[in-house]
Amino acid sequence: LVTVLTETEATHLIRNAEGRVIGVQAEGRQGTINCKAKRAVLISSAGIDHNLEMAKDYNRQQYWGLQMLEKGYVAPKDTIYNTGDGVRMGIEVDADLACSSACCMKDAHYVGGVGDYSTAEGHTPNEYEIYKFEGNILVNPRGKRYVQEDAEWGFVVAKTVSELVDNGMNFDDIDKFCYIICDADHLWVWENKGAANNETIVSVDTIEELAEKIGVPSASLTKTVDEWNSYCADEVDPDFDRRCDFGTIATPPFYADLVIPQSMGSASGLKTNANTQVLTPSGDPIPGLYAAGMSMGGNWMPPFYPGCGWAILGTMVWGRKAGQMIAAEQPWE
After folding, report:
1. Of 103, 104, 192, 254, which residue is the least packed, with the fewest Cβ within 10 Å?
2. Contacts by 228-233 with C-beta closer than 8 Å and gap 24+?
3. Is the dihedral of CA 287, 291, 296, 300 positive or negative?
4. Are strands 296-297 and 261-271 parallel, antiparallel or unpaired?
5. 172, pLDDT greater than 80
6. Residue 123 confidence (pLDDT)
């Protein structure tokens, strides 16, 4: 029998004198209530997706995305109610954290490969069977390319935030940007992805004017575009080994738009062992406390999001394991 309490927020974990987690304190319409756990407590209340302060402390890429959201450059892509409450409650009982530097994040132009968008209406995929990116390049605040644009999309966006950091971006003010560049012959790429009407787009008649509009060095951007155009003849990219969707940037008007992060969830949570027990900084399990889903960190911690399915791993695989472990716990009075 499960009792569901709506409009009731879990606020703190309850421990006994021996340090075992024995329940949860909550606040709701009926005031403060204490809920006793029969066997153990499982935290599965999502990650720090929309907690600005926790993202600032634990996940730089997520913080960048949230700051862009705060400043109105992008709309939320996941629920705004994932505010890391379970992670916070775990910290309050001395839990350790396992925080990835990456998060699930795509840019507004769907840049990057290794995915399957080939079923989109009217879409002819490239060799990766993804949205075409023909005749488009990415440049940093110095007007230079910085990434293989057809690399895995999680890598592209993680490389973007690293590039901004290397160029001295102020995370609190977001004073530097990377840009996507194309010409009139390839604006259809943006139209196919629904990005051709972004309010952040700049359109001018020369590359020099484009550089001035977006605030990058004119000589640098001109050199970058000239080099890219020269690579298109043989479809060989000696700088970043891009493999597909070559196309010159030569026909005015020329367009630039921000590389805008669209975060779909963080990967920063409570550190657990293989039995989903939440651990202290010394590596000891906290008695009576388990975590699964995106509240659980550390099950996969690469420097960039590797592809879809991360959250499913935390939910289905580790959720099942947590259920088995808790079912094996002895009830207490």
Report:
1. 192
2. 228/137, 228/145
3. positive
4. parallel
5. yes
6. 58
